Amino acid sequence: MLRNEFIITNNSAMSLFSIPSNKRFVYYNTDSLIRKDPLIKSISLLQTFLQKCNFKEDEDDLEDLRPFKGFGKPLLQCNTEHKQHMANETHRQKRNFMDLLMDHVDEALEMGFDDSSTKFKGKNHFMILSTKEWYDTFKMLHKIFIENPDNPKFEANDLDYKSYLENFNKIMDIDDEFFNACCDIGLQKALAMYNNPALTHYSNAVHKKLVDEAVTLYMKYARGTRTAVNENKLREMCERCWRNGKQQCEVNSLRGNPCILPKHIVKELSEHSSAHVFISTCNCGRTQGRREDPYTIRHANYEFYQYMANNCNLCAKVKQVHFPVFEPSINDYRAAEFEIAFPKLSIQDSINLDQDHNLPSPKSVASDECSQPLTASQGTHTNLSLVSTDELNKIDVDADIPSSDESLNELIIQVKDKNTQKAEDKERSIYRQPSTTEYLPGMVHTQTPPGLLPRFPSWSLVCVGPSSVYSHNTGLLEHFQSGFLSGANFLLPWDVHVRLEHSASWAYEKTRIRKMGEVHILKIFVGCEYECPRGHRFMMSSADKILRGGSGILRDSGSKVVYNNMPLYFPCPCRSHKADVAQLMRVHVVTPKAPVNVILDPKVRTGERDYVFTMGMPNPPRLTQSAYWILRLPYTYQGDEGPITPPNEITTINALSYGCLLAGMFGVSETELDD
């Protein structure tokens, strides 16, 4: 080992050190008394006391009480212990490091060392130098080994010495050289592990995980001062390797799923793919099909349902309500930019603005307090919309009339005279013409500037047949509405008491309104349908309860759905451990045979950005009597800032916080009569 590190050489005259031949020059101390550690002795003594089961004095304690060693013991045993002790003392005296050292010193001063392996051997004698000679020698060595290497301007004339100076750190720092070699080995192994040829491309999360694993492997080999430098180098190399052909696209879809394709440049967002496939139902609810994870609002709310309509026998026959869309008048039309011109209002400001706009004067509010102006339909003789339960109770308290289930569902249709009706029709006909040069990039909501229309409808309203297609005894059958869970395929009955009130009685007190007019009882069936990504469909019996069989449906169970906010998302019961998030997709309405029209004015509020989305129609649609109507809600909602991603997990407790269908979407109007 000494020769390998060039501490000694074959020629002792050229070596810094020399050792005698055929003599021991390593001393190993085996004496436990010399090497004993007082701390270890104290710990051993403590363990000895802890291991005693009682406080009885043992042999060692009795030995300490003897006046002299061997007192009270047999003579033979005492002699044996004495001889063993003397032998240890003799061995310790014979084997001494100073004796080994003095043997080498005496030989060096008297005879010299003969450890050369050269052809011409000779003895080298040592001599004791004076202090001045020692000083001059080490001064020269200090200049050669320390001063000159630290001086960057020093130039050596001797080639060997010049080479020595250039490789000074490499020669002197042998441990650093060894540690650098270890770091290089660890760096190569870590990079090889990261650059796995089996992984063609992967996401940023996988990339970070692989980098951490590579760094962990590198740290098992890395030692020395260059550990941190090589770690940063490894991270940079992994980052470069990932970005040069192994980076995943990762553009999120409208449902929040990243694209799994390699990073690519696309002209259309539809070129992305997250590999997620969902099961959805067509507009009429009869046919189910597979749909890819959408990346555009057009594909999510329009193109998929157009494709399903071409493959569904019923969709081609149903009666559809056409929604207003953008119709360009020029070729270079563009998307509207209105974020600066029309700042976003809060929900309360929006409600106050709508109330100020729709209520012309405080006097008219007092006379028309029992109805809301949300479902006013143009061209009808009468109109009315339902109010919430709290507002109806408030009216009953003010009128000092006891509340009941019948009064809760009682509607008062105020028949206006011909002149009043014409005046209101003329006022409603003044509607701002939609823009033909700018379209709405998102969806229509309550804060959308007037006159902007989307390029395609996100809603669908179809009549799938007469009211006789639904039987409350059997519910929705599979051949008519596919994908419903067992027991959750029934609509809820809603009994509405309609009272006809003429304009002559408007000036009377509210207590007399309920005593006048003719009462009609309307039988309406309603249902809020939810659909999960697996294609499972179910109805809700209330805002926090799934419908469980037709036998549990009581009379007028639909009031719980009509007069309450229904959550936009709800956990699907198809899975027990981790429920899929089902979304409110359809509203089923079976209109009565009476000569009235049911009015639909749905408003969907999202919980994340507080948007209130509407159908965007100037007048709410009126559903014909004795028919089965299905309102399909948007699959994805998009505001001014972009799409709104649905939640990944949801519970029955926090369902309403992610969005809801606002109560008060239903209204009743008298059937339009021909003049």
TrEMBL record:
Biased composition (Polar residues): 369-382
Region (Disordered): 353-382
Keyword Cell membrane: no
GO BP term, pick one: nuclear-transcribed mRNA catabolic process, nonsense-mediated decay
Pfam family for this entry, one: Smg8_Smg9
UniProt keyword list: Nonsense-mediated mRNA decay
Described purpose of this protein according to its UniProt entry: Involved in nonsense-mediated decay (NMD) of mRNAs containing premature stop codons. Probable component of kinase complex containing nonC and recruited to stalled ribosomes.
Family, per entry: Belongs to the SMG8 family.
Protein name: Nonsense-mediated mRNA decay factor SMG8
Top-level taxonomy: Eukaryota, Metazoa, Ecdysozoa, Arthropoda, Hexapoda
Record gene name: CPIJ003128_6
